[in-house]
Write a structure and sequence with these properties.
It comes from uncultured Acetothermia bacterium. The chain has 131 residues and is mainly alpha-helical. Helix content is 52%, strand content 9%. It has two domains: 75 residues, Double Stranded RNA Binding Domain, CATH 3.30.160; 54 residues, Arc Repressor Mutant, CATH 1.10.1220.
Length: 131
């Protein structure tokens, strides 16, 4: 009997990052399942593609009687942050304009900032290696 792996797939850590070669594409990888590498035109789509790939991978493992890997304990997906009212209002308006949830907007902003910091750090490293 086939299991539905949707809930299990949501527990795997998924890393989303901007494609260094294509600014209009976001990549997704699953550290616990290195063979999964997918993406989408935005972080939300990349996440959805990765979750679907995990479900497919787990289904194939079951069909082929291979061991089903379990996700490593991950960080919680929820944090509580107190925002100044004007920041909250700005984020809410942005979310409404884009037809998205405020959580999606905040998540995308954080992901972009982390990517920018990583890219900036890599540029400094590359630059210092050339000296």
């Amino acid at each position: 009997m086939k299991k539905n792996y949707r809930e299990l797939a949501k527990r795997f850590e998924i890393t989303i990052f901007a494609d260094p070669d294509d600014p209009n594409w976001f990549c997704a990888r699953v550290p616990d399942i290195p063979t999964i590498f997918t993406g989408g035109p935005n972080p939300t789509a990349a996440l959805q593609q990765a979750q679907e790939a995990i479900e497919g991978y787990l289904t194939i493992c079951e069909e082929d009687s291979l061991p089903i890997c379990k996700p490593k304990p991950a960080y919680t997906e929820e944090i509580t942050v107190r925002l100044p009212r004007d920041v909250h209002r700005h984020l809410l308006r942005r979310a409404e304009r884009q037809g998205r949830s405020i959580q999606e907007v905040i998540s995308e902003i954080l992901e972009q900032e982390l990517h920018n910091q990583h890219t900036s750090s890599r540029r400094r490293t590359v630059h210092s290696n050339r000296l």
